[in-house]
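Appendix B: complex inputs.
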Amino acid sequence: MTDTTKKGTTRRGFLAGAAAGGALAATAARAGGPDPLITEVQPWAQSLGDGVDATPYGMPIHFESHVVRRNVEWLTADTISSVNFTPIHELDGTITPQGCAFERHHAGAIELAKPDWRLMIHGLVERPLVFTYDDLIRFPRENHTYFLECAANGGMEWAGAQLNGCQFTHGMIHNMEYTGIPLRTLLAEAGVKPEGKWVLMEGADASSMSRSIPIGKALDDVLVAFKANGEALRKEHGYPVRLVVPGWEGNMWVKWLRRVEVGDQPWEHREETSKYTDTMADGRSRRWTWEMDAKSIITSPSPQAPITHGPGPTVISGLAWSGRGSIREVHVSLDGGKNWQQARLSGASHDKALHRFYFEFDWNGSELLLQSRAVDSTGYVQPTKEQLRSFRGVNSVYHNNGIHTWWVKTNGEAENVEIS
Amino acid sequence: MTDTTKKGTTRRGFLAGAAAGGALAATAARAGGPDPLITEVQPWAQSLGDGVDATPYGMPIHFESHVVRRNVEWLTADTISSVNFTPIHELDGTITPQGCAFERHHAGAIELAKPDWRLMIHGLVERPLVFTYDDLIRFPRENHTYFLECAANGGMEWAGAQLNGCQFTHGMIHNMEYTGIPLRTLLAEAGVKPEGKWVLMEGADASSMSRSIPIGKALDDVLVAFKANGEALRKEHGYPVRLVVPGWEGNMWVKWLRRVEVGDQPWEHREETSKYTDTMADGRSRRWTWEMDAKSIITSPSPQAPITHGPGPTVISGLAWSGRGSIREVHVSLDGGKNWQQARLSGASHDKALHRFYFEFDWNGSELLLQSRAVDSTGYVQPTKEQLRSFRGVNSVYHNNGIHTWWVKTNGEAENVEIS
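Resulting structure:
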């Protein structure tokens, strides 16, 4: 955590402002007489609440029923091929609960029981092997927290501001603690032949989702995972077993993993040629753009999370991440990038995982052009959209990690805008 | 992570065994002809699965419906005052999902909406204050991962082995990433008078659950928390706001927090006199035993999670934690404490948070007396139950952090036993 005195508003100044906030609440209550929520015994203090057997497995309280994954209907032809976005404007901290972590499938979320799961490793290996689920969990496990981001996250924003909410502009991301077996352990079992340079990963659903991964990555930090945030993967996240490819685009994290083939060259399958390649201004496409570049987004205030309290002490909250390592710094601008101030990071800082940042300031009620800018542990600085476009044009929907702008109006409402 | 070659079974030895495991699966399939799960196209690969709109907020897949909180009916008179234990034998990693994180209430889980929530700070302060929820979230937030353990976790085991499963012997614990405001920030708003040495924390439910906390702890790492694992607290965990008292016994983590009073001495309320004090052999009681001592438990194998695969490569998995800091080492014994070997820690290591350990070995099918022993960052070593009893007798149900034993039989089943 950085020193909070480095910000534009000093700690003392902030607290002085906040005291006024506290006083305001008391004042409001006094205006209509004593606050009955303080002076009167409330119903919930006069009767028993739910017993512990009420919910063997609990769900969020009904007051939070708006904190759910949401689709954008016009984005795709049907809900099978669509995306349900994480409500990042309502979340805080760094962990994403499985229940509202974004989902995207290529042939729908299938139901595959553990006894029916098989993983075959074949191709350029000494010993082709088939693993059952019970075989898998006899190997040494590891736990790591990683973000998964779809390559198309923010893709609709390449050409300009489109979707009015960070759930939709940046919600194709989640961050979980995975438990799994390093893929290198399983490959060592099979014995990769010297000519084995690539690995094909394939899922068990009807899309036969498959991607080629270079052997170097496959032997590095890739996990064959069976738990997320402590419990079994959810159906929509690939139960019972999915691939975890840290820092690389989400479509490579093959769900319902069924087959690993070792080869001497990439397969150039459908999802790495017609899709998930980046078409440039001249019509040619970049390929093998696996790594997710450093990126950040202010989640509050944002179009779905306006400032409702009027001028005074205000908390800006956001997320930052990098496929290359951890986040070293985040900067926030209130004026569309003219001036930048250091944000405060708080919480766990893991390589290739989400980081939470905050910036507290005393809002004077005037318009803001909010931006955030991440710097990762390699020194890479998140670029502007203009900088991205100057090199990559506007033909792609993938790998937009440009700095994003929210226009906060005097009434506290926020809107997705683009400034030049 | 420690070097895996430090274990009784070498890495090479383990992998050789595991290869046999993989081969076994293939053999089994061959015995009845080709494995149709490999050779035939399966139903889930021939039709579309669920669309992304199926579950805006998802639940675990039905195959995992046994992974739930469970009560022990005879433990208390009714389910209001009872405990629903975390299914730690089925979880892995370090994070506990809110949905199955243990719950215990003193007057049931109440429903309290954010607009109805108030927090009053009064007593020996310069400025008595009332905070609304909207006031609260305008202060600078922090994110920290902490375990919460009930002081009575393992309490039924003081006199000897009783409950056959780690869910029941050690499941009054969970570990979450909390987002909240440091209590010291709110106390600074109110201005603690020099004579203010203690703080009373009180909940809004009918039990008026209240505990005295010394001012030093209140100004240290205590959080007024409103999110856990990224999302709103669940109803049963104190929605919308609870106290987080890192490393200290769970009953002090007051739920539905409504009142903070600053005083010059402790209040000696019901829950810190008749309850949550430790009766010694001579009938006198220890009080203010807030801090949770270092502890560990093997979660698998255990009575609810037997070894089902027969002799060969076997993974022992468990949890370790300390209210004083992080976990430095965990040792595992296969023979009831005669010989100890170093376990491998994997995953996040935060102060006052759960740590995950593993120990891989080649089981020869003979009986085991499994034990684990934690060493925390202060150098404290988890004691045996005999050591605990020699100082504290058997009259208390609180603060049993003794080394626990599972007897694994030749058929892989495990039983809760005590050895002298």
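Chain B is about 15% helix and 30% strand.
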